[in-house]
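Q: Can I see a sequence and its folded structure?
A: Here is a first one.
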Amino acid sequence: MILNQVTVPALDVAKSVAFYQQLGLRLIVDACPRYARLECPDGEATFSVHQVTELPRGAGVMVYFEQERLDEWVAALQQQGITFDELPTDQSWLWREARLRDPAGNQLVLFYGGENRKNPPWRV
């Protein structure tokens, strides 16, 4: 089994698509204003945005995007005007993470976990 796609809700799909394109995803299906699918620049995973009339309440979904050169990526995104809730920080679970929200308020974590992503010292 492989993870093919993650879909997040948005009130304004076009605005969210523009944001995800700034992160480096490539638009492959444009059915705006109700749906769009993008592909990650590395690997085979896709990511989509679908229109909703009301955003979910509570913590919602957290989406993680991994990039080995995390600090450089975050700095480049800041230069493009993207605002972060938390800049790259080393975490106790041995990942380095930066946190932000997309235009719909979905939580994103840009991170680098390296070998510890799947093989932390406490792995079962």
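Q: Show me another, different protein.
A: A second, unrelated one:
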Amino acid sequence: MFGTKRKPEALIFDLDGTLFQTETLLLPAYHATFAQLRAEGRYTGETPPERHILGALGMVLKHIWHEVMPEVDESVHRRADELLTAYQIEGLARGEGTLYDGVAGTLKALRDRGMRLFVASNGLEPYVKGVIRTQGLEPLFETEGLYSAGQYQTRSKVDLVKRLLETHGVADAWMVGDRSSDVEAGHCNGLFTVGCDYAGFGKSAELDKADARISRFEQLLDLIES
């Protein structure tokens, strides 16, 4: 155990692979991004396999593109940022993208129990806020409680969570996410960590250091009450 398990005043959630089934929105946008890069003459060749971007989820976009297309210029990475975000926002406006089973009901139950709810994501601000808004979850989260690396230009999720805790005066929280970066962000800030073991984006041992693991999002309620 790295964090102490006690009933928290707040929960901080990762977004992709934790609340939101990222691939339902990401993959169509991913293919559209490479089609446009080719049309602009910025990229040649086939679109890299989907596993490359899915395996890199949880990183900041700068590092994701180094994994997906390490051979191209940084300017192409930045254009890919713009395109991917724009296509995902367009997809959200069309009603694309799906939450994991039980997310909406569980978040409402947590809020009804008086928990303060936050998001800390390595994504870009328009994407993070767009997902929460279009999925109808915005009223459940704290005002100004959606934190993204894109908005605050943080170097790591450790720094992002630290900023969130300090800004909102949170003394005791749980960090909930599906990647090792979420576990690290929680432990480095003295938080109890919950690993979400249902997205399948990361390596099998990635959540070994989490203080607890859940295979369905609803199990979070039982974990808090136990």
